[in-house]
Hints:
Strand order of the largest sheet: 7-6-5-8-9-10
Number of helices: 14
Number of domains: 2
Order of helices and strands: HEHEHEHEHEHEHEHEHEHEHHHH
Strand content: 5-15%
Helix content: 40-55%
CATH class of the largest domain: Alpha Beta
Structural class: alpha/beta
Distance between the termini: 22 Å
Shape: globular
CATH architecture of the largest domain: 3-Layer(aba) Sandwich
Radius of gyration: 22 Å
CATH superfamily of the largest domain: Glycogen Phosphorylase B
Amino acid sequence: xxxxxxxxxxxxxxxxxxxxxxxxxxxxxxxxxxxxxxxxxxxxxxxxxxxxxxxxxxxxxxxxxxxxxxxxxxxxxxxxxxxxxxxxxxxxxxxxxxxxxxxxxxxxxxxxxxxxxxxxxxxxxxxxxxxxxxxxxxxxxxxxxxxxxxxxxxxxxxxxxxxxxxxxxxxxxxxxxxxxxxxxxxxxxxxxxxxxxxxxxxxxxxxxxxxxxxxxxxxxxxxxxxxxxxxxxxxxxxxxxxxxxxxxxxxxxxxxxxxxxxxxxxxxxxxxxxxxxxxxxxxxxxxxxxxxxxxxxxxxxxxxxxxxxxxxxxxxxxxxxxxxxxxxxxxxxxxxxxxxxxxxxxxx
Length: 348
């Protein structure tokens, strides 16, 4: 944005410890946001994620004139934990000009919250393909991870959180461990959010701990994907996963669970396999099928890369947001979905 000459105001922070207190910070941030909105008088205000929506949504109502857009990035399961905040979200919905989901599943959730259908639109996540360009990873990576040259490598990019299904993957691997190509390893890429110790004990109990690489947060994920043979995401819940897109962009066949928008990204039987969540046996069967068929892996991986290039590129995503913004300002009588999908609107 800055390269395009757009002024960017960073998240509101303060060196005052009192103002950074969890109980005070939201009120302080709200006041600062109100001040910025009063100064800039934006034509469009766009909120991403619940906290932004709850704080910014209410503050925006004090400013006359702007179009208000909310983006939901996940299923609404989180509302069950916070029923009062859920009611506040539902109260804000009618005040929005447009409400976006990043998958069909998320949009269906939004419809269930009694939002006017014409206000709902879908814009898939987009990724920058450059970091995952098709070329070889540095040879040193395999050496650092103690991976033999012909080691069969599975990767899962997901923070260690219960609903990401890592335990299901461990159980699945224990089912097929004797049938997988030898040697084999799994890269657990992601921050430990509190279940790492239990997962390690589970892996030891299943006698596969020696095959797991616990990598934590990494800044070289594209290279880790390049040394992998297949990718897995076995979540119990999901909105629309960039990790799946990044795996496909690296030409990996993906094995994913049928939750959220996973099945919208991965075409079952063409770019990977879609299995039921919480079913380690199904997960094991899909992994083994790919592990034993190099030609199928290559075919699905290339099809996945092509699908990302045509359907989930960052350029496509940006263009759809621009078309939405243009439509909100110039064609307010159209439905949100028509604004997003109308060809040529940006050029006009």
